[in-house]
Each structure stands twice: as C-alpha cells, then as structure tokens.
Amino acid sequence: MGRIANELVAQLRDIARRFGSPAIAALHVPATKLRQRASPRDAEFCAIELDDGSFGLSYVLLGDTLDQMTGRLRAGETLAGTKALDMVAKFTAGSPVERALALACINALTDSVWRQIGHAPQPAGNSLGELQLTVQDHLGMIGFFPPLVRKVQACGAQLTVIELDEATAQRQRERFPEVRVTLDRSALASCNRVVGTSTMLLNDTLDEMLAAAPHADSFAVIGPSAGLWPDALFARGVTLMGGTRIIDGGSFRQAMASGESWSGAAQKFSLARAGWPGWKVLLA
Fold it and tell me: Which of 16, 86, 109, 272 is 20 to 30 Å from 280 at the Cα level?
C-alpha cells in the first residue's frame, strides 16, 4: 500500500490517544441470498460495528474478499472483542480481506469520534459529489456509478468511465453502449471534473488517478467506504469527499441479515476541502 495508508493509520493512532479505541462488537456482511442474483451487483459492503454503537463500511467486491469474509464468519471468526485500532494497522500491509476490514475500522473509529464530539457532516446535496454539471463539462468517472450515468447524460455533459478490470469494463459497455468505458487512465487528462469511487482507497490507486487528471478543477471521492477523516485526501488534491454514516443501527443490522436494502438506515454526507478546518482544529 502507498503512503496514504500510512498517514491514515498514524492519524487514527494519534486520535486514539485521546479518545481511546473501542472494541469491535460485530462484523456484518451481506446476507447470502443477496449475492445469489442472476446478474452481478455493482457494489457490496461489509460493516464493522463498535461496542459504542458506531459503524464503518467498506467495499468487499475486490477479488474474492466477500467470499473469504463470509468464510471467516462461518468458521466462527466474529472479531468481537478485538480492538479496532489493532485491525487498522492491517491497512498498510495486510491481505485484501484485512485491508477491507481495516478500512471499515478506520471509518468506524472516525464515526465514533464524530459522535463523541457532536460533529455532524453536512448531508450530501446530490449523488454526484455535489457537482453541478453543464454541457461544457467533461466528467471522468473512476469506477462505475450506474445510477449517475443517466443524470450525466441528461445534462449533456461528456462522460468517460475508467475501470481497472476488463471483465467489468466489458459488462458496463454492454449495459451502456453509448458510454466510453476504458482501462486507460490517461483518458482523464481531458476531464475538467472527476468523481471517483472510494474503492481507490482500498486498491491504492488514488494518487495515480489524481496524477492522471491534471486539468480537473474538482475531484470528488465518494462512496460508503469514504467515512474517514478527509485530511490526507484533501492534501493530495481531492476537493470533496462524500461518504455514508449509519444512523439507525437496529434497522441496519436487520437489513444486512435479511438481504434487504439498508439505505433507509444510512445518511450520505459530504465534506468539502474549502472550509474544512482540519482534524486537529476540530478536535482542539
């Protein structure tokens, strides 16, 4: 993993010296029936629940992460009682499963502190990372957001989608043949706006994608995996981070266990680099 992982881990350790490190109460993964669909889903997430009621989400469709995570649960590995901060350390050099769990813990620990200090991030205004697009814009989309494609097309903006996996790219081309979907990240060079999935934190591609979009005047990182302190992202050139917080733990647990949508138990939020005081100021 790259330097951003080290920065995130160091930051959480600093914060834990003051606020402590709650233990993990439970690991939640999508119910089995949710994965037995005729067509693949674009996104699945696990959740770490802490013993203080905080939650953190993480994407689990990289490789066989979800299958391995499910297998661990079936084998009785609940993680209950483990210090979340100990799991966070795996984000720098762990396996894909360990990094996914570590990111969920990073997000859960962030949620924990936000709850303690009464910080409520601004609810997200729209699902495009607060972007207001016009026909003159060229949006680079890193990772596929199917619900957003039609919104981009409706306003007449140009759209280029960057994927990392050819099989996924081909599947999206078949679903949206009018959209340019490519594995070539240099296609971002002509984009003036970029919105990327928070999965870039898991596969350590954020720095590379930022470098590939030198002319972007806005670069948003959005998705349920982006529930963390945004300072390291903003320092690299990200202009907005949009994440998801679980606001109804009981409903969320039921939804995860039954395979139903948990969107009603969550709230999307956004944090803009402009006006962000920094974590040290916020905790002073």
Answer: 86
Three-state DSSP class for residue 172: helix
pLDDT < 50 positions in the chain? 1, 33-40
Element (H, E) at 56: strand 55-59
Q: Is the dihedral of CA 127, 131, 136, 137 positive or negative?
A: negative
How far is residue 247's CA from residue 99's CA, in Å, rounded to a whole number? 24
- Please name the helix (run of DSSP H) or strand (run of DSSP E) that holds residue 8, with its range, or none: helix 3-19
Each residue's pLDDT tens digit, 195-236: 999 999 999 999 999 999 999 999 999 999 999 999 999 999
What is the pTM assigned to this prediction?
A: 0.92
30 half-sphere exposure, CB direction, 13 A CA radius: 23
Cα gap 116→280, rounded to integer Å = 15
Please tell me the distance from the alpha carbon of residue 191 to that of residue 212, in angstroms, as a whole number: 10
